[in-house]
C-alpha cells in the first residue's frame, strides 16, 4: 500500500496516474492499493481478465471523487469520467474493466480528482445563519455577493474584522478540513492558495467555509461536531487579503468537482433573515 503525503486543501484537486501493464505471462504487474492520506483508497481487484476498481472512503463524512481511465486493449463497463459521492466509509465498485484481444498486452492508467462533500447538495434555503462572531459585536461588510474585487460570480461575504477576533460557527456541522499554518497575508498572486480556513459540513450536505484565519488560529479538529455559536477560530489577515477580514461562503460540490457558492441569509440584531449588503454594519 502506497501512502501519498499531501495535505488536501479543500477545493484543490490532484491528479495521479499509474500505469499497470498486465501481460499474459506470469510476470504480470499487479495493481496496488493506493491510499491518499486518510481520505480514500483506490483498490483494483483483478480476477482473470477482469479488473474491478473500488473506491473506499476512509472518512466519517461524504467525499466526492471523479475517476477517469485510459485503457489499452480493455473494455470498460461505464462512461468515463465518472463522478460519485461516497457515503462515510463506503466501499464502492466504480468500474469493471475487461481485457480485450487475447495474446495482446492490456493496460490501464487512472486519474482522480476529489473534493470533500456531496455532489449537488440541495441547500435548505429556509435556514437562517448566525453572524459568525460573539453576541453584541458589529462588523461591516467590505465586500458582498458578486463583489468586484474577488467575489465576481460568487456568493461570498467579507466582514472587516480586527485580527484575533473570535470566529464562531454560523451553523451546526462537522469540521471536514482546516488549515492554520500559513502566516503571510497580502495581495501578491502566490498568496491566493495560501489562506488559512475551516470547512464545516452542514446537515443538508453544503459546506460553510471561513477563510483568512490567523496563523495557528484554528480551535477545532477534523471530525469535531460544532454547534452554531461555538468558537472555532481567531480571525486574521492571512492569504490573498488586503486587510484584516473574515471571508465566509456556503457552497456545494458540483458534478465536475468544482464548487458552487450559494446565497444565504443571516439573523441580525434587527432582522430575522437579512441578505447582507456591502457597506452596511451588522450586529449579532
Ligand atoms: Zn472574500
Relative strand content? 35-45%
Q: Please report the first level of CATH classification, the CATH class of the largest domain.
A: Mainly Beta
Largest sheet: 9 strands, antiparallel
Radius of gyration: 22 Å
In sequence order, what are the helices and strands, one letter per element?
Answer: EEEEEEEEEEEEEEEEEEEEEEEEE
What level of helicity do the residues show?
Answer: under 10%
Number of strands: 25
In CATH, the topology of the largest domain is named Glucose Permease (Domain IIA)
Integer count of domains? 2
Which class do the helix and strand fractions yield? mainly beta
Structure description:
The protein has no helices and 25 strands. About 35% of the residues are buried. It has two domains: about 1-115; about 130-284, Glucose Permease (Domain IIA) (Distorted Sandwich), CATH 2.70.70.10. The protein has strands at about 1-5, 20, 35, 40-45, 50-55, 65-70, 75, 80-85, 90-100, 105-115, 130, 140-145, 155-160, 165-170, 175-180, 185, 195-200, 205-210, 225, 230-235, 240, 245-255, 260, 265, 280-284. It is an all-beta fold. The N and C termini lie far apart (about 50 Å). A hairpin with a 5-residue loop joins strand 17 and strand 18 (about 205-210). The protein is about 0% helix and about 45% strand. Strands 12, 13, 15, 17, 18, 19, 22, 23 and 25 form a nine-stranded antiparallel beta sheet that branches. Strands 1-3-4-5-9-7 form a six-stranded mixed beta sheet, with no helix packed on it. Bound molecules: zinc ion (ZN). Zinc ion binds near residues 150, 156, 158 and 247.
